[in-house]
Amino acid sequence: MNEQADGVIHILKEKGLRVTPQRFAVYAYLRSRSDHPTAEQIQSALNQNAPTSSQATIYSALQALRKVGLVREVLLEEGVCRYDANVEPHHHFRCQSCGAITDLPWQFFQQVDLSQLPPGLRGEAYEVTVRGWCDRCQPTHSQAK
Amino acid sequence: MNEQADGVIHILKEKGLRVTPQRFAVYAYLRSRSDHPTAEQIQSALNQNAPTSSQATIYSALQALRKVGLVREVLLEEGVCRYDANVEPHHHFRCQSCGAITDLPWQFFQQVDLSQLPPGLRGEAYEVTVRGWCDRCQPTHSQAK
DNA sequence: CTTTGTGCAAACGATTTGCAGGATG
DNA sequence: CATCCTGCAAATCGTTTGCACAAAG
């Protein structure tokens, strides 16, 4: 766990970011999760035991991390911006019952061919978003919304 | 144009929606466009000549249309919710320079196989989002953000 | 010590809500 | 005519900003 912490510190420095406790906490937390928490979720997670970061700080830390490419935002539902420390290309699965989000490895859908785009469009990257039901929300008998 | 109007009225009625001038205008406008306007863009377009709809009405019309499946929302950038009267499955292209959004026909990427999902996940639908440059923003020499 | 980040509270923009009057079926 | 919709303004929610103080390099 300490090695991991050192790693995070090193990464932040490498990107030219000052290492503050708040930034460290936000980034370490994001790296520890794969469910793309919202800003609010990050804040309440970090402040669970003791108040460590104000909400303005969370947002500014997220922006700083985004600016250097350590974090990206994920938009899958209205009105909520989620954050993801996994900046490698990957796809998303969203359970339409409980809203849970699962990362899908890149190789699941890597067969998309960007050279087939309509004339004039040059594609650089793509991402697949799948809607469905997660393991806990199987619509076996009772259909979920 | 009048036949189209009749068609729109008929569709609204069929879905059990009262046909009001505002609802008609919102839906007809959305059907006339393929660039997924925001609520604000819809409002200013409709009020271009004469004030016809308040912003609360636009939102409630959009919700009513969404509820009956005539309109869906499209989330491709932060903080903006776009609306789309094309509820047939299709993909999206977003120019990362000017932000323009283009629909991509379904058949461009229909080769995705949802049976390959990780165990426990049951996929129902998917959508591909492509980032790149549109015809007016080709990064020939000067790179865009 | 200089630069950059933090915390607070107020500002902001998009969306929602409550309620009285008005239009639809 | 009963029901549902509109318009207005106020409320709400997530995010951003301004500024004084504090911490990082």
What can you tell me about this protein's structure?
The structure is a homodimer of 145-residue chains. With 145 residues, chain A is α+β, with helices and mostly antiparallel strands. Chain A folds into two domains: 82 residues, Winged helix-like DNA-binding domain superfamily/Winged helix DNA-binding domain (Arc Repressor Mutant, subunit A, Orthogonal Bundle), CATH 1.10.10; 55 residues, Dna Ligase, domain 1 (2-Layer Sandwich), CATH 3.30.1490. Chain A contains four helices and five strands. A three-stranded mixed β-sheet of chain A has the order 4-3-5, with no helix packed on it. Chain A has a two-stranded antiparallel sheet with strand order 1-2. In chain A, strand 3 and strand 4 form a beta hairpin. In chain A, helix 2 packs across helix 3 and helix 3 packs across helix 4. The longest helix of chain A is centred in the N-terminal third of the chain and has 13 residues. Chain A is globular, with a radius of gyration of 18 Å. The first copy, chain A, starts with a helix and ends in a 12-residue tail after the last strand. The mean pLDDT of chain A is 90. The structure holds a DNA duplex (25 and 25 nucleotides).
